[in-house]
Design a protein that fits this description.
The structure is a homodimer. By secondary structure, the first copy, chain A, is an alpha/beta fold. Chain A contains 7 helices and 10 strands. In chain A, the strands form 2 sheets. A 6-stranded mixed beta sheet of chain A has the order 6-7-8-3-9-10, sandwiched between helices. Chain A has a 4-stranded antiparallel beta sheet with strand order 2-1-4-5, covered by helices on one side. The longest helix of chain A is centred in the C-terminal third of the chain and has 18 residues. The structure holds adenosine-5'-triphosphate (ATP) (2 copies) and magnesium ion (2 copies). One adenosine-5'-triphosphate sits at the interface of chains A and B.
């Protein structure tokens, strides 16, 4: 369960202040599937970084599964990120000098699996996103949409209870985007995983239960999606 | 004028071959506005790199404004890129440690303008894409869609005769995407610039004169757009 209370994030640049996020409050229950939408620069990635324990708010409180995140030390935060959260970054953040397969094996180190198990799971995850024939390619030997799919496979391979995906279909053609969306939906339905997707894509937004809209760092609406 | 004859690009990886592009032929006349579409991995970025003189084909011929590109040496190629072509990269390729303003001033070194002129033109270009308030931010202090718009401003600032844009609205919300598209359209109409856009966005494709579709490295269709 995700409880955000008045989250604010201010970046200070010399004499200027950028209020990237301003007083964002909401609760997301386990197993919900939520879209976060809003114009370019409205604070979506900033909000996702706080939810994903990658950044701390300048103000406000964030409670994750009953634990106030500000009370966690660096190593506890790293544990939460490794065990509970799968993050698909807006710009993928893949390791450049390692293959797609090795990129997807990396997060599994937390789970204490054997080399053989980690390799098998990584292969399955890559096949699920249509990259079975590209596992040995490094990121610079992959197309933009293929890199995005490696980032998705890496976020899902540990079956985290919370999936945070920042514009996961941004680099994909509509057919591949539909396949990825149905993958997120089945994880959500079959495993009860909480899925939070930042998106500009109305197809993606239509297939979630609820849409939170940001504008200039503020939440301007938070509505259930009418049944599809 | 762009004349592509049987362009192929093969990447060799150990014992395997990846045919990223296979026998692509087409002519694009000065002042045309063309969309290139196709599934993720179908060869669009590979084709754009060849058209933009950033890569050489493994086979086939590419003639740009009457000059066979294979006959140009490194310094002549750099000249063509600097003077004739404005390229918006799929992953932006901004300089990380320099501000948005300096990133957009960089291509103008070719044009022999004064520091004052270069700064003025860069400021105007950034204002045109809605980033007047973010000129002093470095790329890591910008949102994904803001970085994309810096990449667009940088490609346009020299008013190149050919604009090549690889998924230029991929990181943008629909309203900002509409603004960017109308910017491309006005450059095309008012300046007669040739505009080639790789896109997954049907809104963008609808607003071009012609759509070339790729699939598995092949051109599978090349059709004029019915009048909008
Ligand atoms: N490190 C930083 N320093 C200063 N300003 C920043 C920093 N990071 C982000 N910003 C600013 O904060 C605002 C929100 O950024 P954010 O990345 O959250 O937007 P976004 O909603 O994800 O946009 P997009 O849809 O374009 O990805 C933007 O105006 C951006 O310029
Ligand atoms: N350096 C490389 N070495 C090996 N294979 C490569 C290399 N670069 C690209 N490829 C492969 O060539 C194919 C075409 O890649 P390209 O980047 O042109 O696709 P694209 O149409 O732009 O896709 P997207 O829409 O996902 O950006 C892909 O299958 C990719 O894996
Ligand atoms: Mg963002
Ligand atoms: Mg591409």
């Amino acid at each position: 369960m995700i409880v955000a209370e008045n989250l604010s994030k201010v970046f200070t640049m010399g004499e200027n202040e950028v209020r990237a996020l301003d007083g964002a409050s909401f609760t997301i229950n386990e197993g919900e599937m939520v879209a976060i939408m809003g114009p370019s620069g409205s604070g979506k990635t900033t909000l996702m970084s706080i939810i994903g324990c990658l950044d701390v708010p300048t103000d406000g409180r964030y409670v994750l599964d009953g634990e106030p995140v500000e009370s966690l030390n660096e190593s506890e935060l790293a544990q939460v990120r490794g065990r509970k959260i799968g993050f698909v970054f807006q710009q993928f953040n893949l390791l450049a000098r390692t293959s797609a397969l090795e990129n997807v094996m990396l997060p599994q180190l937390y789970a204490g699996a054997t080399m053989k198990e980690r390799t098998e799971r990584a292969k399955k995850a890559l096949e699920r996103v249509g990259l079975g024939a590209r596992m040995d390619h490094n990121p610079n030997e992959l197309s933009g949409g293929q890199q995005q799919r490696v980032a998705i496979a890496r976020a899902l391979v540990n079956e985290p209870s919370i999936i945070l995906a920042d514009e996961p279909t941004g680099a994909l053609d509509s057919k591949t985007g539909v396949e990825i969306m149905s993958l997120f939906q089945s994880l959500h339905r079959d495993n009860g995983q909480t899925v939070i997707l930042v998106t500009h894509d109305s197809y993606v937004a239509r297939h979630t239960d609820r849409i939170i809209r940001l504008s200039d760092g503020h939440i301007v609406s938070d509505e259930k999606n009418p049944s599809p």
